Amino acid sequence: MSTSTSAPVREATVADVPDILRLITELAVYEREPDAVEATVDSLTAALFPADGGPTAFCHVAEVDGPQGRRVVGMALWFLTFSTWTGRNGVWLEDLYVEPDQRGSGLGLALLRTLAQVCRERGYPRLEWTVLDWNEPSIAFYRAVGALPQDEWTTQRLTGDALAGLAEG
To answer: Torsions phi, psi of 135, nearest 5?
Structure first.
């Protein structure tokens, strides 16, 4: 396992978007949804690095040194939430992914720590995410850093025909 002596986590740049898409695709395979990825380099670029206005999503990447130089092996893709109870923004971690051969190297922890630092620096009281019920390695990792399940909340989702039907009235 390769590790780097310089800071392994940094904010993503537009040049990282192909790697971010690659990691999203790898995550989809890991989560047993290999055909679910509809994102493209263009759609990710528009969300993370829009030509007009501010970004709607943000990303940090983890790098290691390799034979061809530094390469992106992990990512934390996130966006802002808002809590009416606290009256402040928070961070929603949409995807945290580290390549299998780099797991256990501390990169996942470094990515999470970076987002916790973003929260502290900006006064955001929450860092939240979901995890698949069957993903025991990730659940154990999250418990180890002090994350607590919010079992009293169930995520709801509208997509496809149900979303269109509600929109149409």
So the answer is: -85, 70
Closest CA to 97 of 69, 44, 138, 58: 138
Contacts 24+ apart (CB under 8 A), 148-152: none
Catalytic residue among 30, 97, 124, 142: 142
Contacts of 71 (CB under 8 A, 6+ apart): 19, 63, 64
Q: Are strands 127-128 and 88-98 parallel, antiparallel or unpaired?
A: parallel
Report d(CA 82, CA 105) in Å as an integer. Answer: 33
Compute the distance between CA of residue 43 and CA of residue 22 in angstroms, rounded to an integer.
Answer: 14
pTM, two decimal places: 0.90
Give alpha helix (H) positions in 123-159: 136-144
Residues 109, 133, 1, CA angle at the centre, nearest 5°? 35
**Quick check: is 30 catalytic?**
no
Give tens-digit pLDDT for 140-154: 999 999 999 998 888
Residue 154 to residue 62: CA distance in whole angstroms: 31
Question: Tokens in use for 103?
Answer: 């797991």
d(CA 166, CA 169): 5
